[in-house]
């Protein structure tokens, strides 16, 4: 059994990043196969349940009202639309349905609507995940009582680089939300975005923050920035593919039992790069031709990729909390 550590020093993580590429992915893959079936990938499908007009100023996001991205705003979706999208996702093979809302935080009234959605999706025997922005302790408890399995709330980047990306909420706000989620007994899903102009040290520092939380997040989404016209980060230099794969590998090594999710940005990755990410320890991904507001590879393509790599999607309809201790 691999040892789970919550006391990673930045220098140790940077040293992993600095390893020769082959040594790094060999180490990551060895840890991966000790902890998981290396030929299985968990698949989640996303749905934007409330789109656009977000008061936050995240400089990567199509949904911030500060960014003139031409996105049409939508009100909270009716529950019937959510259920029909979830049914479709299940038919297509997803085991988890993730609902995202462009909010700074949910109001108590909107939370009640989301709670009804969670109950309806759970009734389809799917795992549920929501990402609704900052949460108070009481709100997290209500979500737990509704049977929610996962809450996604990303740290996004290192504490040092964070101020370059977002000014309307602090890093500590994010850590507080994660604490409220964890204390309520909901599985934490938290990761970040690469390719926003951060340094390798920032990537190491983001992973350090995640690994040194009191418990490793059950899932760690690693997003490659999707550049969106009208956002301040549009046009920034793309991150080198091998650096992305290195980050996946380091996440796998320092959080050996967490699901590492190959998240946004797959539409611009070739199949070979995705295969290397799976080898380096990614074992989850978003499946379905849409993320929240941008495109994801289409399902036929992903099914073909899985067949070419003999990868099976993980069938796991349990709603029991995943113990990663
Ligand atoms: N509004 C809520 C929040 O920010 O917590 C939930 C939805 S928000 C869209 C969820 C996450 O998606 C963000 O924290 C960010 O990590 C990721 N994301 C958003 N836009 C992205 C983009 N253009 N490229 C990559 N990841 C992105
Ligand atoms: C996460 O880390 N990535 C997902 C999910 N959590 C909510 C969102 C990606 C969004 C990509 C840009 C878009 O489609 O708007
Ligand atoms: Fe709003 Fe979330 Fe987009 Fe930030 S990432 S602007 S909080 S929807």
Explain this structure to me?
- The protein is an alpha/beta fold and 325 residues long.
- Helix content is 37%, strand content 15%.
- The chain is built from ten helices and ten strands.
- It has helices spanning 10-17, 21-35, 79-91, 108-122, 137-145, 171-184, 200-211, 241-254, 271-279, 299-309; strands at residues 40-50, 96-101, 127-131, 150-152, 187-189, 192-194, 219-224, 259-262, 282-286, 312-313.
- Strands 1, 2, 3, 4, 5, 6, 7, 8, 9 and 10 form a ten-stranded parallel beta sheet that branches.
- The protein is globular.
- Residues 317-325 have low confidence and may be disordered.
- It binds S-adenosylmethionine, 6-(5-methyl-2-OXO-imidazolidin-4-yl)-hexanoic acid and iron/sulfur cluster.
- Residues 54, 60-61, 100, 102-103, 131, 133, 153-154, 156, 193, 223, 225-226, 228, 264, 292 line the site of S-adenosylmethionine (SAM).
Topology:
Blueprint: H1 10-17, H2 21-35, E1 40-50, H3 79-91, E2 96-101, H4 108-122, E3 127-131, H5 137-145, E4 150-152, H6 171-184, E5 187-189, E6 192-194, H7 200-211, E7 219-224, H8 241-254, E8 259-262, H9 271-279, E9 282-286, H10 299-309, E10 312-313
Parallel strand pairs: 1-2, 1-9, 1-10, 2-3, 3-4, 4-5, 6-7, 7-8, 8-9
Iron/sulfur cluster binds at residues 54, 56, 58, 61, 63-64, 102, 133.
The small-molecule ligands in this entry are:
S-adenosylmethionine, 6-(5-methyl-2-OXO-imidazolidin-4-yl)-hexanoic acid, iron/sulfur cluster
Main sheet attributes: strand count, strand direction, barrel closure: 10 strands, parallel
Please provide the ordered H/E string of secondary-structure elements: HHEHEHEHEHEEHEHEHEHE
Question: What's the end-to-end separation, in Å?
Answer: 11 Å
| Number of separate strands | 10
Mean pLDDT: 92
Discrete helix count: 10
Helix content: 25-40%
**What does the radius of gyration come to?**
18 Å
Unreliable segments of 5+ consecutive residues = 317-325
Gross morphology is globular
Q: State which percent range the strand residues make up.
A: 5-15%
């Amino acid at each position: 059994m691999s040892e789970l550590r919550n006391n990673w020093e930045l220098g140790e993580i940077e040293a992993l990043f600095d390893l020769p590429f082959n040594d790094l992915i060999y180490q990551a893959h060895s840890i991966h196969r000790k902890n998981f079936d290396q030929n299985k990938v968990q698949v989640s499908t996303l749905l934007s349940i409330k789109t656009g007009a977000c008061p936050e100023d995240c400089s990567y996001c199509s949904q911030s009202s500060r960014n003139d991205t031409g996105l049409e705003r939508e009100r909270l979706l009716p529950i019937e639309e959510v259920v029909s999208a979830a049914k479709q996702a299940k038919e297509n093979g997803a085991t988890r349905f993730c609902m995202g809302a462009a909010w700074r935080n949910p109001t108590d009234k909107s939370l009640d609507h989301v709670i009804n959605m969670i109950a309806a999706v759970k009734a389809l025997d799917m795992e549920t995940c929501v990402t609704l922005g900052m949460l108070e302790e009481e709100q997290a408890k209500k979500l737990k009582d509704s049977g929610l399995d996962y809450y996604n709330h990303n740290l996004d980047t290192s504490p040092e680089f964070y101020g370059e990306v977002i000014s309307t909420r602090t890093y500590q706000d994010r850590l507080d939300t994660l604490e409220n989620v964890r204390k309520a007994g909901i599985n934490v899903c938290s990761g970040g975005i690469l390719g926003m102009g951060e340094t390798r040290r920032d990537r190491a520092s983001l992973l350090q923050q995640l690994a040194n939380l009191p418990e490793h997040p059950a899932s760690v989404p690693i997003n490659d920035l999707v550049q969106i016209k009208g956002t301040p980060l549009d046009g920034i230099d793309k991150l080198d593919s091998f650096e992305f794969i290195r980050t996946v590998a380091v996440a796998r090594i320092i959080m050996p039992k967490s699901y590492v999710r190959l998240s946004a940005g797959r539409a611009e990755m070739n199949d070979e790069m995705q295969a290397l990410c799976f080898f380096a320890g990614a074992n989850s991904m978003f499946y379905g031709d849409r993320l929240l507001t941008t495109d994801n590879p289409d399902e036929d393509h992903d099914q073909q990729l899985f067949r070419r790599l003999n990868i099976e999607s993980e069938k796991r309809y349990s709603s029991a909390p995943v113990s990663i201790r």
